Amino acid sequence: MEVLKIASNSKPKSVAGALAAVLRAEDKAELQAIGAGAVNQAVKAIAIARGFMAPSGIDLVSVPAFSEVEINGEERTAIKFYVEPR
Predict the structure, then answer these.
(1) Which of 26, 32, 38, 77 has its CA 20 to 30 A from that of 70?
(2) Which residues pair with 81 in a beta bridge?
(3) What is the DSSP code (8-state) at residue 34?
(4) Taking the C-alpha atoms of 49, 55, 61 and 66 in order, what is their torsion angle to the nearest 10 degrees?
């Protein structure tokens, strides 16, 4: 499954385009965000991607989950969004 890593300065429309492309190719995707700003951008991107996919008759659903990731030898808590068609 493709993992898209989102930062607080990620552009939601660009992430949405990448998300839609991954979903068309693989039928499911995962977004990973660390921090409030990154989570905000990820949620916006999912909403925009739903708009991109809707004309094709595809409705997206997202399931959020916590995940522990290691960055520079330090454990951090990330939010992962599993996205797939309904």
Answers:
(1) 26
(2) 31, 64
(3) -
(4) -10
Looking at residue 50, its pLDDT comes to: 93
CA distances from 74 to 70, 81, 86 (A): 5, 22, 36
CATH class of 2-85: alpha beta
Q: Write down the pLDDT at residue 1.
A: 74
Domain spans in the chain, listed from the N-terminal domain onward: 2-85
Residue ranges, the chain, pLDDT below 50: none
60-71/29-33 β-pairing: unpaired
Query: Distance between CA atoms of 68 and 65, rounded to whole angstroms?
Result: 10
Burial (CB count <10 Å: 0-12, 13-18, 19+), residue 35: middle
